[in-house]
Design a protein that fits this description.
The chain is of the alpha/beta class. Helices cover 39% and strands 15% of the residues. The chain has nine helices and eight strands. The protein has helices spanning 2-31, 39-53, 79-84, 103-109, 122-134, 198-207, 229-243, 252-255, 260-267, and strands spanning 57-61, 68-72, 90-94, 113-115, 139-141, 170-180, 211-217, 274-275. The chain has an eight-stranded mixed β-sheet.
């Protein structure tokens, strides 16, 4: 176990150093007005390699649907590299992430959309997010606004769903769950919650004997012209809860009438997942 932890630690340090060199290179040419056009591909590669360095095993079902805003539950900082490893994807992130070493620098240089915690700034970032999605680069939002312990899915803030209203883009729910090996119980070491600090969370991941991440890209939601952002938030959350195998909310019976297909896919999503 000690040898495995040491090997992972060395790989992660090397990989973070590689990230710093990439960021410095990109910043240099960006200041010259010639940002490299290969940045999205390299970022996707960097995320995949980080997951391998950490010893994380991925189980993925479904795929990114074109022209969609991706809506995911939020458990850990690791959600970003796990989802980002699957496609050239952008993210809407809290502004604090910009201050994180290496990860924050990379997030900023690749065009992550940042929003102040608790501030009503959706209108400020919505136009750039819509432009990215329409140009073929999906963007992920975490509408809980914070992380959870993986045993539940918190309240989805409806205001973020205004981004997709009347714009021609769709909404695709994404469910992410962390497990210890073949266990069906949510892992307790992966969540990044409360007063946790990044270095402690990173160390727990490095030392984890067998962390398996289940990632399910669920069917896009139908967006009728008159649908409200509250309905979009509730429907997305219900589909994700179903994919995670969580019990439905008290109003789940009503929402399920709109989401029969999505929930059916979600209930078997993790069971049918394939290695990512």
């Amino acid at each position: 176990m000690m040898a495995r932890t040491l090997w992972r630690s060395l790989r992660v340090i090397e990989h973070l150093c590689t990230g710093v060199l990439i960021v410095v290179y990109i910043r240099f040419f960006a200041r010259l007005g010639r940002p490299p056009d290969w940045v999205p591909q390299v970022v996707c590669w960097w995320y995949r390699r980080l997951c391998r360095a950490l010893g994380v095993r991925l189980r993925v079902t479904g795929q990114v649907a074109p022209g969609c805003l991706l809506v995911s539950n939020h458990v850990s900082w690791l959600d970003v590299p796990v989802i980002g490893a699957q496609h050239e994807i952008g993210f809407l992130s809290k502004s604090e992430v910009k201050g994180w070493p290496v990860i924050g620098w990379i997030a900023e240089i690749v065009g992550t959309h940042f929003i102040e915690r608790g501030a009503h700034q959706v209108s400020r970032v919505s136009s750039s997010i819509i432009a990215d999605v329409l140009q073929g680069r999906p963007v992920v939002i975490f509408p809980e606004g914070t992380t959870s312990d993986g045993c539940r899915v918190g309240h989805f803030h409806p205001r973020l769903f205004s981004i997709a209203q009347g714009t021609g883009i769709g909404i695709q729910p994404v469910a992410i769950g962390y497990r210890h090996g073949d266990s069906v119980i949510p892992d307790t070491r992966a969540p990044y919650i409360g007063d946790d600090i990044l270095i402690a969370s990173l160390w727990r991941i490095i030392c984890h004997p067998d962390l398996v991440v289940h990632l399910a890209f669920l069917p896009p939601l139908p967006i009728a012209k008159e649908v409200t952002r509250r309905t979009l938030a509730d429907d997305s959350r219900l589909a994700i809860r179903a994919a995670l195998g969580l019990a439905p909310d008290q109003n789940g019976a009503y929402l399920s009438k709109r989401l029969t297909g999505a929930i059916h896919s979600g209930q078997s999503a993790f069971a049918d997942a394939h290695p990512g």
